[in-house]
Write a structure and sequence with these properties.
The protein is α/β, with parallel strands linked by helices and 267 residues long. It folds into 2 domains: 6-207, Alpha-Beta Complex (2-enoyl-CoA Hydratase, Chain A, domain 1), CATH 3.90.226.10; 211-258, no CATH class. 46% of the residues lie in helices and 16% in strands. The protein is built from 9 helices and 10 strands. The strands form 2 sheets. Strands 1-2-3-5-7-10 form a 6-stranded mixed sheet, sandwiched between helices. A 4-stranded mixed sheet has the order 4-6-8-9. The longest helix is centred in the middle third of the chain and has 20 residues, at 152-171. The chain is globular, with a radius of gyration of 20 Å.
Protein backbone atom coordinates (compact mmCIF):
# COMPACT_ATOMS: atom_id res chain seq x y z
CA UNK A 1 0.00 0.00 0.00
CA UNK A 2 1.37 3.42 -0.95
CA UNK A 3 2.07 5.96 1.75
CA UNK A 4 -0.55 8.72 2.22
CA UNK A 5 0.14 11.92 0.30
CA UNK A 6 -1.10 13.95 3.28
CA UNK A 7 -0.19 12.95 6.81
CA UNK A 8 -2.45 13.95 9.69
CA UNK A 9 -1.51 14.05 13.36
CA UNK A 10 -2.86 15.76 16.45
CA UNK A 11 -1.32 16.74 19.76
CA UNK A 12 -3.77 18.30 22.18
CA UNK A 13 -5.96 20.71 20.22
CA UNK A 14 -3.44 21.22 17.38
CA UNK A 15 -3.95 19.26 14.15
CA UNK A 16 -0.95 19.10 11.78
CA UNK A 17 -1.36 18.25 8.10
CA UNK A 18 1.88 17.41 6.31
CA UNK A 19 2.15 17.34 2.52
CA UNK A 20 3.96 14.08 1.88
CA UNK A 21 5.70 13.90 -1.49
CA UNK A 22 9.18 14.80 -0.23
CA UNK A 23 11.04 13.46 -3.28
CA UNK A 24 9.04 15.89 -5.44
CA UNK A 25 9.28 18.75 -2.91
CA UNK A 26 5.62 18.07 -2.09
CA UNK A 27 4.44 19.38 -5.44
CA UNK A 28 0.71 19.03 -6.03
CA UNK A 29 -0.95 16.26 -7.97
CA UNK A 30 -4.67 15.65 -8.38
CA UNK A 31 -4.41 12.80 -5.89
CA UNK A 32 -2.72 14.95 -3.27
CA UNK A 33 -5.38 17.64 -3.71
CA UNK A 34 -8.08 15.04 -3.07
CA UNK A 35 -6.36 13.75 0.08
CA UNK A 36 -5.74 17.28 1.38
CA UNK A 37 -9.36 18.29 0.79
CA UNK A 38 -10.51 15.26 2.79
CA UNK A 39 -8.06 16.00 5.62
CA UNK A 40 -9.20 19.63 5.81
CA UNK A 41 -12.85 18.60 5.86
CA UNK A 42 -12.12 16.19 8.70
CA UNK A 43 -10.27 18.87 10.69
CA UNK A 44 -13.10 21.34 10.09
CA UNK A 45 -15.68 18.87 11.39
CA UNK A 46 -13.67 17.80 14.46
CA UNK A 47 -14.43 20.16 17.34
CA UNK A 48 -11.38 18.97 19.27
CA UNK A 49 -9.26 20.81 16.68
CA UNK A 50 -8.62 24.43 17.71
CA UNK A 51 -5.60 25.22 15.54
CA UNK A 52 -4.39 23.81 12.22
CA UNK A 53 -0.78 23.64 11.03
CA UNK A 54 0.03 23.02 7.36
CA UNK A 55 3.60 21.99 6.55
CA UNK A 56 5.66 19.81 4.22
CA UNK A 57 7.70 16.64 4.61
CA UNK A 58 11.42 16.65 3.94
CA UNK A 59 13.29 19.72 2.72
CA UNK A 60 10.43 21.60 1.07
CA UNK A 61 7.06 23.07 1.97
CA UNK A 62 5.55 22.79 -1.52
CA UNK A 63 7.08 23.38 -4.96
CA UNK A 64 3.68 24.15 -6.48
CA UNK A 65 2.02 22.14 -9.20
CA UNK A 66 3.74 18.97 -10.38
CA UNK A 67 4.08 19.72 -14.09
CA UNK A 68 4.32 16.01 -14.87
CA UNK A 69 0.85 15.41 -13.43
CA UNK A 70 -1.56 14.38 -16.22
CA UNK A 71 -3.95 17.12 -15.13
CA UNK A 72 -1.60 19.85 -16.39
CA UNK A 73 1.09 18.18 -18.52
CA UNK A 74 0.91 19.63 -22.03
CA UNK A 75 0.48 17.31 -24.99
CA UNK A 76 3.44 18.14 -27.23
CA UNK A 77 2.17 16.24 -30.24
CA UNK A 78 1.42 18.34 -33.30
CA UNK A 79 -2.21 19.40 -33.47
CA UNK A 80 -2.97 18.21 -29.93
CA UNK A 81 -5.59 20.04 -27.90
CA UNK A 82 -3.97 22.57 -25.52
CA UNK A 83 -3.94 21.78 -21.80
CA UNK A 84 -6.40 23.97 -19.89
CA UNK A 85 -4.63 24.84 -16.63
CA UNK A 86 -7.56 27.08 -15.72
CA UNK A 87 -9.74 24.02 -15.20
CA UNK A 88 -7.24 22.71 -12.65
CA UNK A 89 -7.44 26.04 -10.81
CA UNK A 90 -11.23 25.84 -10.63
CA UNK A 91 -11.33 22.17 -9.70
CA UNK A 92 -8.58 22.02 -7.09
CA UNK A 93 -6.85 25.27 -6.14
CA UNK A 94 -9.86 27.52 -5.72
CA UNK A 95 -11.65 25.13 -3.32
CA UNK A 96 -8.40 24.63 -1.40
CA UNK A 97 -7.69 28.36 -1.08
CA UNK A 98 -11.26 29.16 -0.04
CA UNK A 99 -11.38 26.34 2.51
CA UNK A 100 -8.17 27.51 4.18
CA UNK A 101 -9.60 31.04 4.28
CA UNK A 102 -12.83 29.87 5.93
CA UNK A 103 -11.60 27.33 8.48
CA UNK A 104 -13.27 27.78 11.90
CA UNK A 105 -9.83 27.77 13.56
CA UNK A 106 -6.57 29.67 12.94
CA UNK A 107 -4.33 28.17 10.25
CA UNK A 108 -0.54 28.33 10.46
CA UNK A 109 1.67 27.68 7.44
CA UNK A 110 4.90 26.20 8.79
CA UNK A 111 7.20 26.76 5.82
CA UNK A 112 10.13 24.43 6.37
CA UNK A 113 11.74 24.83 2.94
CA UNK A 114 10.99 26.15 -0.51
CA UNK A 115 7.46 27.40 -1.21
CA UNK A 116 7.19 27.96 -4.95
CA UNK A 117 4.42 28.75 -7.41
CA UNK A 118 1.04 27.63 -6.14
CA UNK A 119 2.80 26.32 -3.04
CA UNK A 120 3.74 29.89 -2.16
CA UNK A 121 0.19 31.11 -2.84
CA UNK A 122 -1.30 28.43 -0.59
CA UNK A 123 1.13 29.33 2.20
CA UNK A 124 0.32 33.04 1.83
CA UNK A 125 -3.39 32.23 2.01
CA UNK A 126 -3.00 30.81 5.51
CA UNK A 127 -3.54 33.07 8.53
CA UNK A 128 0.02 33.18 9.85
CA UNK A 129 3.26 32.07 8.21
CA UNK A 130 6.25 30.97 10.25
CA UNK A 131 9.26 30.12 8.08
CA UNK A 132 12.59 28.50 8.82
CA UNK A 133 15.52 30.78 8.00
CA UNK A 134 16.60 28.37 5.24
CA UNK A 135 13.16 28.56 3.60
CA UNK A 136 12.41 30.64 0.54
CA UNK A 137 9.46 31.88 -1.54
CA UNK A 138 9.48 31.82 -5.33
CA UNK A 139 6.88 33.21 -7.71
CA UNK A 140 7.89 30.72 -10.38
CA UNK A 141 4.98 31.29 -12.77
CA UNK A 142 6.67 33.66 -15.22
CA UNK A 143 9.33 31.02 -15.90
CA UNK A 144 6.73 28.79 -17.56
CA UNK A 145 4.63 31.50 -19.19
CA UNK A 146 1.87 31.73 -16.58
CA UNK A 147 0.58 34.23 -14.00
CA UNK A 148 0.51 33.81 -10.21
CA UNK A 149 -2.53 31.71 -9.35
CA UNK A 150 -4.21 29.98 -6.41
CA UNK A 151 -4.98 33.48 -5.13
CA UNK A 152 -1.52 34.89 -5.78
CA UNK A 153 -2.58 38.00 -7.71
CA UNK A 154 -5.00 38.91 -4.88
CA UNK A 155 -2.59 38.17 -2.05
CA UNK A 156 0.73 39.57 -3.25
CA UNK A 157 -0.15 43.25 -3.75
CA UNK A 158 -2.15 43.31 -0.52
CA UNK A 159 0.74 41.88 1.44
CA UNK A 160 3.71 43.73 -0.04
CA UNK A 161 2.30 46.46 -2.33
CA UNK A 162 2.12 46.65 -6.10
CA UNK A 163 5.80 47.41 -6.74
CA UNK A 164 7.09 44.46 -4.73
CA UNK A 165 4.33 42.18 -6.01
CA UNK A 166 5.16 42.88 -9.64
CA UNK A 167 8.89 42.60 -9.00
CA UNK A 168 8.48 39.19 -7.38
CA UNK A 169 6.05 37.96 -10.05
CA UNK A 170 7.99 39.26 -13.05
CA UNK A 171 11.45 38.07 -12.03
CA UNK A 172 10.54 34.82 -10.30
CA UNK A 173 13.57 35.38 -8.08
CA UNK A 174 14.05 33.37 -4.90
CA UNK A 175 13.05 35.41 -1.84
CA UNK A 176 14.80 34.23 1.34
CA UNK A 177 12.58 33.89 4.40
CA UNK A 178 14.40 36.66 6.27
CA UNK A 179 13.75 39.09 3.41
CA UNK A 180 10.15 37.87 3.17
CA UNK A 181 9.63 38.87 6.80
CA UNK A 182 11.27 42.26 6.27
CA UNK A 183 9.00 42.87 3.27
CA UNK A 184 5.87 41.94 5.24
CA UNK A 185 5.13 38.86 3.17
CA UNK A 186 5.24 36.55 6.20
CA UNK A 187 4.77 36.85 9.96
CA UNK A 188 8.07 35.46 11.24
CA UNK A 189 11.37 33.94 10.18
CA UNK A 190 13.15 31.84 12.80
CA UNK A 191 16.38 29.88 12.93
CA UNK A 192 16.07 26.34 11.67
CA UNK A 193 17.07 24.97 15.07
CA UNK A 194 14.16 26.83 16.72
CA UNK A 195 11.60 26.31 13.95
CA UNK A 196 9.71 23.31 15.35
CA UNK A 197 9.56 24.77 18.86
CA UNK A 198 8.37 28.15 17.54
CA UNK A 199 5.60 26.59 15.45
CA UNK A 200 4.45 24.34 18.28
CA UNK A 201 4.42 27.18 20.78
CA UNK A 202 2.43 29.47 18.51
CA UNK A 203 -0.03 26.71 17.61
CA UNK A 204 -0.63 25.83 21.27
CA UNK A 205 -1.08 29.49 22.13
CA UNK A 206 -3.65 30.04 19.37
CA UNK A 207 -5.44 26.79 20.25
CA UNK A 208 -6.06 28.16 23.77
CA UNK A 209 -7.56 31.40 22.42
CA UNK A 210 -11.19 32.06 21.36
CA UNK A 211 -11.29 30.28 18.00
CA UNK A 212 -14.60 31.81 16.90
CA UNK A 213 -13.29 35.32 17.51
CA UNK A 214 -10.05 34.60 15.64
CA UNK A 215 -11.93 33.21 12.64
CA UNK A 216 -14.25 36.24 12.71
CA UNK A 217 -11.21 38.55 12.85
CA UNK A 218 -9.82 36.95 9.70
CA UNK A 219 -13.17 37.29 7.95
CA UNK A 220 -13.62 40.90 9.06
CA UNK A 221 -10.20 41.93 7.79
CA UNK A 222 -10.75 40.26 4.43
CA UNK A 223 -14.20 41.81 4.08
CA UNK A 224 -12.89 45.25 5.03
CA UNK A 225 -10.69 45.32 1.93
CA UNK A 226 -13.82 45.80 -0.17
CA UNK A 227 -15.72 48.17 2.16
CA UNK A 228 -15.73 51.85 3.01
CA UNK A 229 -14.50 52.94 6.44
CA UNK A 230 -18.05 53.58 7.65
CA UNK A 231 -19.38 50.28 6.32
CA UNK A 232 -16.48 48.48 7.94
CA UNK A 233 -17.34 49.91 11.35
CA UNK A 234 -20.96 48.83 10.94
CA UNK A 235 -19.79 45.35 9.91
CA UNK A 236 -17.61 45.19 13.01
CA UNK A 237 -20.67 46.06 15.08
CA UNK A 238 -22.68 43.21 13.57
CA UNK A 239 -19.90 40.76 14.31
CA UNK A 240 -19.51 42.07 17.85
CA UNK A 241 -23.25 41.63 18.42
CA UNK A 242 -22.90 37.96 17.54
CA UNK A 243 -19.68 37.37 19.45
CA UNK A 244 -20.82 39.19 22.59
CA UNK A 245 -23.72 36.73 22.92
CA UNK A 246 -21.32 33.78 22.96
CA UNK A 247 -19.86 31.73 25.78
CA UNK A 248 -16.32 32.91 25.03
CA UNK A 249 -17.15 36.58 25.58
CA UNK A 250 -18.84 35.86 28.90
CA UNK A 251 -15.98 33.60 29.93
CA UNK A 252 -13.35 36.11 28.83
CA UNK A 253 -14.91 38.95 30.81
CA UNK A 254 -15.45 36.76 33.87
CA UNK A 255 -11.85 35.56 33.74
CA UNK A 256 -10.56 39.11 33.31
CA UNK A 257 -12.52 40.36 36.33
CA UNK A 258 -11.49 37.38 38.43
CA UNK A 259 -7.86 37.71 37.30
CA UNK A 260 -7.72 34.07 36.20
CA UNK A 261 -6.92 32.34 32.89
CA UNK A 262 -9.92 32.01 30.57
CA UNK A 263 -11.10 28.67 29.20
CA UNK A 264 -12.46 29.25 25.71
CA UNK A 265 -14.64 26.58 24.07
CA UNK A 266 -16.54 28.20 21.18
CA UNK A 267 -15.60 27.27 17.63
Amino acid sequence: MSEPLVLSSQVGAVRTLTLNRPKALNSFTAEMHIELAAALAEAEADRTVRCLVLTGAGRGFCAGQDLADPAVAPNLEAGAKPTDVGQVIERFYKPLALRLRSMPVPVIAAVNGVAAGAGASIALGCDIIVAARSASFIQAFSKIGLIPDAGGTWLLPRLVGRANALGLAFTGDKLPAEEAQRMGLIWKCVDDSAFAVEVRGLAERLAAMPAAALAATRSAMDDAMHMSYADTISHEGRLQSKLSASHDYLEGVAAFLAKRPATFTDR
